[in-house]
Recover the amino acids of this structure.
């Protein structure tokens, strides 16, 4: 049996994994808790801080995009008409 025909269950499982928004929120909370407890060394602060900033930026961007999409859907639903009684 050749190696090409053999399945690697670990590789298959790894390929199925994805990171979702909830995972990013957990990472943010872990960083915050670690910083509050003093478990991050001084020479690690910049690296951890940069990671925190990147994740926070992504989360804010996703939230803004979601709000914009919701706003556009509401406008489409209302036919683009104002909600005033003029």
């Amino acid at each position: 049996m050749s190696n090409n025909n053999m399945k690697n269950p670990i590789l298959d499982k790894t390929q199925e994994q994805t990171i979702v928004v909830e995972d990013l929120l957990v990472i943010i909370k872990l960083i915050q808790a670690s910083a509050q407890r003093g478990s991050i060394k001084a020479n690690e602060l910049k690296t951890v801080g940069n990671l925190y900033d990147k994740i926070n930026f992504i989360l804010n961007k996703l939230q803004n995009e979601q709000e914009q999409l919701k706003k556009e859907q509401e406008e489409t639903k209302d036919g683009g008409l104002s909600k005033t009684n003029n």
The radius of gyration is 22 Å. The chain has three helices and no strands. The CA atoms of residues 28 and 66 lie 20 Å apart.
